[in-house]
Amino acid sequence: MNEPIRPAPETADRLILRVISGYAALFVVFGFLVSSPTEIGEGLVAIMTSRDTLLTDYFGVGGVGAGFVNAGLLTLSACLVYFLVGARLNGAAVAALFLLLGFGLFGKNLLNIWFIVFGVALYARFKGQPFATHINAAFFAVALSPVTSEILFSSLLPVEVAVPLGIGTGVLIGFILPPVAAQVFKAQMGFALYNMGFAAGLVGILIVALYKSYGFVPDPVLIWTTGNNLLLGSFVGFVLATMLAIGLLLDRHAPCGFARILRESGQAPTDFIAIGGFGATLINMALSGAIGLAYVLAVGGDLNGPVIGALLSIMGFAAFGKHPKNLVPIIIGVVLGSLAKPWHLADPSILLAALFGTNLAPIAGRFGWGWGIAAGFLHSSAVLSVGVMHGGLNLYNNGFAAGIVATVLVPIIIAVQSGRAPVEPPLCQPSGASGRRVDDGDA
User: What does each of the 443 residues of the chain score in pLDDT, given as a tens digit?
Assistant: First the structure.
């Protein structure tokens, strides 16, 4: 007889928070193992006072140790905020925190995110709602944190202008991004998981246009480190192995929960913790991250701040939409889209497109591998063209490009498959979480 389907076990929010905090603390420890306290102190200052537009690898700005310490302390601070406001630790929260941990290696630092977070808190107060209901949106919204750094440390503006302008702009961004994200979610219907990247790209275009009209033009940045694959690959491999082990230890039925996760399309909002349990979700995070790491090594890519950030993004959203069955077609599509073009798969933009482009995984999950490959194919070109529009100030550039791809491609798929005018598909509801409310910018 077949074993009956059992519901996902309930997991205390504090356990999830302790696990995430543990990985953030591991980053801090690793940072101090590879660099001296003096180097880390000087590196953190350099990171917090640097311009953070794409691509700014913090390993090249402040050193490998300082980059890891920045990411770890930043995520520990965010975990403390989640604890203090009593927020739910669901799949979206795991995605937000791992995204913060990843981008803490390139673009987000201990200084530049908090003005945007405060702006989201003001928006929650304006709406008469507790900050806990918008906390995921707050930590997704720091996609535009380079705007703050760009203004604060601009050589074109006097300090007495740069400081209030930078802070005010950050707070304003935080206030307006949640409603914008909620609106654009309707356009791409949950098929691009980095919804806040789509919203941040649109807002970033307006910000860049406004500042350009006053002669303030952000210069492009490319800081990309190489030569650390053995050290960093060993560390990432250790993280993945421990994640798999913890998942199995937490729940002996986790493999069954993982099988349930693999049956989901991943269309947002899909909370894998509610569907398969936290143990199964950790297994999914480990295996999904391993696929990303194997791809980087197979194409001869560099492991550095941005690439590890992309791997952590895959791992985080493996709690909220990605799994091996739906992300692989996207990577294949990016590879196919690059074969006849004048660039190499290990080039920075293309390597990151393959990893971050997996936020289109729900297209493959819902419509099949063929359409997933097509989405990846289109994304490989789209992502190279949209960055100039927001001046590299939107860290989720792949999310912006994917939002455009999903908004255009999904109605076409529906029309082709149905043979009639496009009809908006219903948003999927996570198993065992019927009626779950989606916070502004939750995805």
Answer: 444 444 555 567 899 999 999 999 999 999 999 999 999 999 999 999 988 888 899 999 999 999 999 999 999 999 999 999 999 999 999 999 999 999 999 999 999 999 999 999 999 999 999 999 999 999 999 999 999 998 898 767 788 988 999 999 999 999 999 999 999 999 999 999 999 999 999 999 998 888 878 777 677 788 999 999 999 999 999 999 999 999 999 999 999 999 999 999 999 999 999 999 999 999 999 999 999 999 999 999 999 999 999 999 999 999 999 999 999 999 999 999 988 778 889 999 999 999 999 999 999 999 999 999 999 999 999 998 887 778 788 899 999 999 999 999 999 999 998 865 544 554 444 333 333 434 444 44
Angle of CA points 143, 406, 399, to nearest 5°: 15
Report d(CA 434, CA 97) in Å as an integer: 24
HEC assignment per residue over the chain: CCCCCCCCCCCCHHHHHHHHHHHHHHHHHHHHHHCCHHHHHHHHHHHHCCCCCCCECHHHHHCHHHHHHHHHHHHHHHHHHHHHHCCCCCHHHHHHHHHHHHHCCCCCCCCCCHHHHHHHHHHHHHCCCCHHHHHHHHHHHHHHHHHHHHHHCCCCCCHHHHHHHHHHHHHHHHHHHHHHHHHHHHHHCCCCCCHHHHHHHHHHHHHHHHHHHCCCCCCCCCECCCCCHHHHHHHHHHHHHHHHHHHHHHCCCHHHHHHHHHCCCCCCCCCHHHHHCHHHHHHHHHHHHHHHHHHHHHCCCCCCHHHHHHHHHHHHHCCCCCCHHHHHHHHHHHHHHHHCCCCCCCCHHHHHHHHHHHHHHHHHHHHCHHHHHHHHHHHHHHHHHHHHHCCCCCCCHHHHHHHHHHHHHHHHHHHHHHCCCCCCCCCCCCCCCCCCCCCCCCC
Least Cα distance to 24 among 79, 85, 91, 84 occurs for 79
d(CA 201, CA 406): 14
This model's pTM is above 0.90: yes
